[in-house]
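Reviewer 2 asked us to include a model.

Predict the structure of this chain.
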Amino acid sequence: PEGALAAAAPGTLLIHMSTIAPATARRLAAAAAERGLEMLDAPVSGGDKGAIAATLSIMVGGEPAAFERA
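Predicted model (structure tokens):
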């Protein structure tokens, strides 16, 4: 109740970059939408080796308009 969703102003675009289960990402996106927020799910792939080599990949899921906005 005191987290980011509760504190965000309507119209805020949230970009979640943790690697979480798809069902969890969908629940977060639904909760965000109920509060007038947009959310993108954007986990990072590549781990420590990818970070060191500067070869990380970000996979993004969400509404196209939110993606364009980001």
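Helices lie at 4-7, 22-34, 47-53, 64-69. The longest helix spans residues 22-34. We have added this to the supplementary material.
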